[in-house]
């Protein structure tokens, strides 16, 4: 939440954070309060449940799903809502590749691998997807 909060503070944009774990939401709210940020909104629920009930298309979507990926329903929603940018962070490149294949109308602009757990098989992959016009 730290980097996103700094971006929101500088850009004065609205930011909605969705996390399945209520504890993570409590930490995010505490961080936002400590930083004096009021344009952030957090909800503890499943991201697919949240997204599929939203009518407005966001300008940017950042997803960091569990190992299972975001799944077909959220991919379909994102393809329909067509945000200009999706940042996809994943600890499972296979499910990320499956999800990206489901996202119609997007191209992979950039991919970065992060070895956050040296000497293990675990990694993070960050991918920037851009909507093709």
From TrEMBL:
Enzyme class of the recorded protein, top EC level: transferase
One of the protein's GO biological processes: rRNA base methylation
Entry's Gene Ontology molecular function annotations: rRNA (uridine-C5-)-methyltransferase activity
Methyltransferase recorded as keyword: yes
Keywords on record: Methyltransferase, S-adenosyl-L-methionine, Transferase
UniProt xrefs under Pfam families: tRNA_U5-meth_tr
Residues that coordinate or bind S-adenosyl-L-methionine: 19, 64
EC number in record: 2.1.1.189
CDD domains: AdoMet_MTases
Active site: 91
Keyword Transferase carried by entry: yes
Family indicated by similarity: Belongs to the class I-like SAM-binding methyltransferase superfamily. RNA M5U methyltransferase family.
UniProt-recorded name of the protein: 23S rRNA (Uracil-5-) -methyltransferase rumB
Organism of provenance: Klebsiella pneumoniae
């Amino acid at each position: 939440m730290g980097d996103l909060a700094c971006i929101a503070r500088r850009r004065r944009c609205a930011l909605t954070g969705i996390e399945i774990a209520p504890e993570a939401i409590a930490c995010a709210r505490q961080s936002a309060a400590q930083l004096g940020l009021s344009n952030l909104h957090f909800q503890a629920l499943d991201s697919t449940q949240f997204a599929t009930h939203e009518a407005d298309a966001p300008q940017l979507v950042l997803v960091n799903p569990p190992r299972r990926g975001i799944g077909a329903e959220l991919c379909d929603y994102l393809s329909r809502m067509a945000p200009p940018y999706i940042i996809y962070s994943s600890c499972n490149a296979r499910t990320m590749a499956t999800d990206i294949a489901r996202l119609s109308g997007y191209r992979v602009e950039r991919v970065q691998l992060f070895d956050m757990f040296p000497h293990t098989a675990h990694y993070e992959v960050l991918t920037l997807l851009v909507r093709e016009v």
